[in-house]
Amino acid sequence: MRIDIKQAHGWSAGVSNAARGRQGPFFTLVVCASCRAVTDEVMDGLRQAVRGRPHGVMVSTGCLGIVLRCRRRRGLHAAVQPCAVDHRPTGAVVRIGPLATAADAEAVGAWLRTGMPDDGTLPDRLRAAPAPRHVARSN
Fold first, then answer.
1. For the whole model, what pTM was predicted?
2. Alpha carbon 133 to chain centroid distance?
3. DSSP string, 109-123
4. Long-range contact list for 130-136, CB < 8 A, 24+ apart?
5. β-strands 27-32, 56-61 pairing
6. For residues 84 and 136, what is the distance between their CA atoms, to the nearest angstrom?
7. Rg (CA), the chain
8. Could you report the per-residue pLDDT of 22-32, keeping only the tens digit for each?
């Protein structure tokens, strides 16, 4: 199942002139601003990672419970989706969290900078479970 995280929340994002025509891993990172355990160092680490990618966008929103299983008190949760230069989704959502330390944010940032490979670069402990409504139930 493919979820367009921007469409689920009714977002629309423009593309900066710096991002037009550039090659590379385009992505939209949506970060939960409702998580109680969010520290400035975690948010700053993610901002720095996105700022270093002219084709990356970071959006701060309310609870991401619609796309992932949120454990608010354990750390920050986010979702990232690869996209085209015009920010239309081109791949599946990757659910991230909880991010509790600056080292967690750096690990996510390094993974974003390398193009979000599905090769174990992002540790399993930083992958959040999908929301219960997105999990198939067995009979």
1. 0.75
2. 19
3. HHHHHTT--SSS-S-
4. 130/67, 130/68, 130/69, 130/95, 131/65, 131/66, 131/67, 131/68, 131/69, 132/69, 133/66, 134/1, 134/3, 134/67
5. parallel
6. 29
7. 14
8. 445 799 999 98
